[in-house]
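From the shared-data thread, chain only:
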Amino acid sequence: MAIDPTVATHGRIAPRAFAAVFFLSPLIASLAPRVTPGTMTLVGMALILAALRRGTSWKELIVPSAAFLACLAFSLYVFLNASWAWNPGAGFAKAALLFGVILVVFATVSAVRAIDDQQVRSATVAFAAGAFFGALYLLVELLFDGAITRFVMNIIPALQPDDSKHATFVDGAVTHLNANRLNQNITTIMLNAWPAMLMLSAAALRYRCGMIALFLAVSAVAVFISEHDSSQLALLGSVIVLALAWKWPRWVVRGLAVIWCLGFALAVPIAHLAYDEGLHLNKSLPNSYKARVILWGYTSEKVLEHPLVGVGVNTTRERDNAGVNDRHKAPRPEGFVMPRTTAHHSHSMFLQTWYELGAIGAVLLSIAGALVILGTTTLPRNAQPFAAATFAAFAVIAAFAWGMWQTWWICAIALAAVYVCLGARASLLAGHSAVTKRSDSQQKAPDSDSRLQAFAIC
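Structure, as tokens:
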């Protein structure tokens, strides 16, 4: 790709505005995860516009890689699947969202490779700072019973919740906030953590090792004092993946691809087995764990009614919203902590895929995810462990937590991929090798053009 030097010099977006986008995006998303679609739009626009102003054509932004084609095939099947969903209109809306996010994220990743080096450096430092302050905010909120939020709510009563599900009121003032209201926030900082630490590792900053340690400490404490068990498991799992990938990156990435596919292959039989073994009646398990076993067991039974094509995208929530899955009327055997119902969603992307999209959807999504993680082997050597850790964190949370069609969740996953690629580009600028393994006799610093050719994510 030829770049006009005059465009490269004078066609850049204002450096301060560009850096501000990457500082505010992780910070605002950490404070209010539901605005993640907006932050994804800002990040995508900033990167794509910067690439276009440096001479990149629109055609160059969408590279027909194997991962892109697999993700596109999955999204097209979701469009087809929506036609027999409980609410086809809502199903088509989710299909359109997925299709749009896929186009934006792959175009944005291509744009990352084309933007100016100085923009990369400023964006990575700004993102790391924004992500850190977001994690620090959550830590303060968890340590002091949501003191900042309670103060704002009591100053501006219109911001107070309508019910007492997540808050305690005394004389019209909020005196206590339930920690589980921050579960989405904790998920957000968990997805941002490894990309931010990758960027810090590539930044030309003094005491960067200390900064990485501080960032990890703040994020880890916030995650472990929260009530989001899935993020806690994700942090533990991703730390192990990071450590192993530092020594054996290619083997770990391949292992993650296999585990990802096994998650779809084994989701239904494992859910059946856990329920048949009576884990939902085990008094030593927390109620949230027992509830998931009941939910998974019942959903796995329903999968067998439409095993090939499923019941339709987003049908679980739409049926629940319509009152079809009335929890008050659903059977609740003695000793069960919740009725036998599919509820709002399956609390497992692997199982929800089977129930709503059937075997066809499960196969297509397993292939798409495997190709995405395998594509990270093209990243610089220093970036691969962080990419693997980010994917592991996402996969663990997806296995136990959110509904797969929640808009903020889809956009948060997409942003994590973009942030990893931005950190990978920063690693190239820092002089890290784009090759995973190379003998001492073969080592030499690649020039800028060869680095960018090697950096072809997915």
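Residues 249-276 form the longest helix (28 residues).
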